[in-house]
Specification:
There is one protein chain. This protein has helices at 5-31, 36-91, 96-110, 151-158, 214-287, 296-327, 339-349, 351-356, 376-393; strands at residues 113-122, 127-134, 144-146, 162-164, 186-193, 196-206, 335-338, 360-362, 371-374, 399-401. It has 402 residues and is of the alpha+beta class. It has a six-stranded antiparallel β-sheet, with helices on both faces. Strands 7-9 form a two-stranded antiparallel sheet. β1 and β2 form a beta hairpin. The longest helix has 74 residues, at 214-287. It is rod-shaped, with a radius of gyration of 50 Å. The termini are far apart. 21% of the residues are buried. Residues 1-6 have low confidence and may be disordered.
Length: 402
C-alpha cells in the first residue's frame, strides 16, 4: 500500500464506522418508538451510500494505478529485451553493416518511432554518412549529409544530445529536398569512442504522435553506450580478419615463390649437368690414353679439367640439396660406408684446389677399412666441403692434415 492510498482508505473507514454507530442509535430509538430513530436511519443510509461511492472511486483509482504500473513494466521489459538481443548480436561477432542495421532497428523499437538512423563521421569530419536506416529512409543508406547542414551534424560537432519537436523549423537543421517521409519530432545522441564523437543515433516521429522527452534521450544514451562497445569489438574482429586474410595471401605467395625456385633449380641443374657430364666423361676418356698418348702437361691439364668438373658437379648437387632441406624433402640413403675410402676420394677431388695454391695435404689413417652405416654421398659432400674450406683458409704453401 502506497502513502497516497492510505488517506483514502482511512477516510472511507471513518465513514463506515460512523454509519455503523448511527445505525445502532437509530435501532435503539426505533425500538423506543421515537421519531429520531427514523432520522438516524436516513443518515445511516446516506453514510452507507457515501462509503460505497468512495470505495468505488478508490477502486477505480487503484485499477488505474495498476494498469499504469503494468504498462510501465511491460515497456521496461520490452526495452530490456531489445537491449539484450542487441548485446547477444554483438557477442556473436556480426559484421559492422549488420550491427549498424540492428542498432537502427533497436532505436526505432525502443522509442516507438517511425524512422531510425545511424550516422558515422566521414571525410575528415566534413560529412555524416548514413550507414544504417530503419523505416521509410532505408533507401538513403550510404548517403552523405553535410555536417554543417544537418541536425545530426550539429549533434556530432557539438557533442550534445538534442530533442526537437519539429526539425523542419529547427534552425540547426536544413531540410532535405523532396524527402521520402516528412520528419517532425526528433531525438539525436552522439556516439563516442575513446572520448571522440564517431557518429550519431537518431529517431524521428513517434508512432503515438507525442514529442520526445528527456527520458527518451537517456534511453538512447543507454543504447549508445552499449553500441560503442559492440562497434569497437566488431572493428577489432574486422581488422583481425583482414590481417588473417593478408597473412594467408602472403603464405600463398611464399609457397608459390618456393615452388618457382625449386622448379628453376631443377631446370638449371638439368641444363648444367648435361654439358658437365660430357666434360667429365670425355676428360676421363682422354686420361685413359685409349685415344692416344698424352704428354705430361696434357695429362696434368686434363686432370685439372676433370677434377674441377667434378667439383662443379658437387657444387650443383649441394645447391639442390640445400633446396631440398628447405622444402623438408631431404632423403637419406643409409648403407654400409667406408669412411677411409670416402676421405681418400675427397682428397683426390680437391687436389686441384691445393695445386693452385701449392698446398700439401697429408692423410693420417690406417690401412684398415673404417665401415659405418651412413649416406655415402652426403659423407663425401661433407668431406669435400671441409677440404674446400681448409684450402680456402690455408695460406699458399701451407699444409692440410686430415
Amino acid at each position: 500500500m502506497t502513502p497516497a492510498q492510505r488517506p483514502g482508505m482511512r477516510s472511507t473507514g471513518a465513514v463506515v464506522a460512523a454509519a455503523v454507530l448511527i445505525g445502532w442509535v437509530a435501532v435503539v430509538f426505533a425500538m423506543q418508538g421515537r421519531w429520531e430513530g427514523y432520522l438516524f436511519a436516513g443518515i445511516t443510509t446516506l453514510l452507507a451510500l457515501l462509503a460505497a461511492f468512495r470505495s468505488k472511486i478508490n477502486t477505480s483509482r487503484d485499477e488505474a494505478r495498476l494498469r499504469a504500473a503494468l504498462t510501465g513494466a511491460a515497456a521496461r521489459n520490452r526495452e530490456l529485451e531489445t537491449l539484450r538481443s542487441l548485446a547477444a548480436s554483438q557477442l556473436s561477432g556480426r559484421d559492422l553493416p549488420d550491427l549498424y542495421q540492428q542498432v537502427a532497428e533497436a532505436a526505432t523499437q525502443l522509442l516507438r518511432a517511425e524512422v531510425g538512423l545511424v550516422c558515422m563521421v566521414v571525410e575528415e569530419g566534413r560529412f555524416m554518412k548514413i550507414v544504417a536506416a530503419s523505416g521509410a529512409l532505408e533507401a538513403r543508406v550510404d548517403q552523405l549529409v553535410p555536417i554543417d547542414q544537418s541536425l545530426v551534424g550539429w549533434v556530432a560537432y557539438n557533442d550534445e544530445p538534442v530533442v526537437s519537436d519539429n526539425i523542419e523549423q529547427d534552425s540547426r537543421n536544413f531540410p532535405v529536398e523532396d524527402p521520402v517521409v516528412r520528419l517532425g519530432a526528433a531525438a539525436v545522441i552522439p556516439l563516442r569512442s575513446a572520448g571522440l564523437v564517431i557518429g550519431t543515433i537518431s529517431v524521428y516521429n513517434r508512432a503515438d504522435g507525442r514529442p520526445f522527452r528527456v527520458s527518451d534521450i537517456r534511453l538512447l544514451e543507454t543504447l549508445g553506450d552499449q553500441v560503442v562497445v559492440g562497434l569497437d569489438r566488431a572493428s577489432m574482429l574486422a581488422e583481425s580478419r583482414q590481417n588473417e586474410e593478408a597473412l594467408v595471401r602472403k603464405n600463398r605467395q611464399l609457397i608459390r615463390a618456393t615452388q618457382l625456385k625449386d622448379q628453376f633449380l631443377a631446370n638449371v641443374s638439368h641444363e648444367l649437368r648435361t654439358p658437365l657430364n660430357a666434360i667429365i666423361g670425355f676428360s676421363d676418356l682422354l686420361l685413359t690414353e685409349q685415344l692416344g698418348p698424352l704428354t705430361p702437361p696434357q695429362s696434368e691439364f686434363l686432370e685439372s679439367v676433370l677434377n674441377n668438373g667434378r667439383h662443379l658437379l658437387h657444387l650443383i648437387n649441394d645447391v639442390l640439396d640445400l633446396s631440398k632441406i628447405e622444402a623438408g624433402r631431404m632423403e637419406l640413403v643409409l648403407a654400409p660406408t667406408d669412411i677411409r675410402e670416402a676421405v681418400l676420394a675427397a682428397v683426390t677431388d680437391t687436389a686441384s684446389l691445393r695445386t693452385a695454391k701449392e698446398q700439401a695435404c697429408s692423410v693420417q689413417m690406417g690401412d684398415e677399412p673404417i665401415s659405418i652405416v651412413a649416406d655415402g654421398t652426403r659423407i663425401r659432400q661433407i668431406l669435400f666441403n671441409l677440404l674446400s674450406n681448409a684450402s680456402k683458409f690455408t695460406p699458399e704453401g701451407g699444409n692440410i692434415t686430415k
